[in-house]
Amino acid sequence: MGNDQKRSAGTMIIRLCLLVAFLGGRLPHVGTEEDSGPFSTPFPSPLNADALLNPNCSQLTLKLDFSTKVVKHEYIVAFNGYFTAKARSDFISSALRDVDAVNWRIVRRDNPASDYPSDFEVVEIRQDAHSSLLTLQDHPYIKRVTPQRMVLRSLKLTDCE
């Protein structure tokens, strides 16, 4: 590597570090907390022209609300590999046949990826869920069974409170 190339590479690294430092100071740092918790991050006023025109306004605030809740009677069944929809259905059916579970169904997913092999399925079980879940977990092709959760997120940008 020649001196010009080394100098150019060093300059690029310095510029990249400065860009990361600049963006890191301008972007919100948001954590996650399960089941609740609003987070507020102040933004500098140049992001909003109205804030620049109003001398009493010194900052913008981004409020992030995040919550999760368990979806009643729905479970994610994770498999040991990628299988077709028919194979996944057969695995679940054979496992639940052993506990005589009759009130269950696979929740339909409306997306283009559902035509391809997958490593999970969402199942709704309405009766005796505990024994059904234990039986599902014992199946050789099923890795784990976890409750389905719904995530609710919202963003609200406010200026001058």
Automatic annotation (TrEMBL):
The signal peptide stretch is 1-32
In what residue span(s) does the Membrane-bound transcription factor site-1 protease-like N-terminal domain sit? 70-149
- Cross-referenced Pfam families: MBTP1_N
Q: What keywords tag this UniProt record? A: Signal
- Name of this protein: Membrane-bound transcription factor site-1 protease-like
Q: Which organism is it from?
A: Carassius auratus (Goldfish)
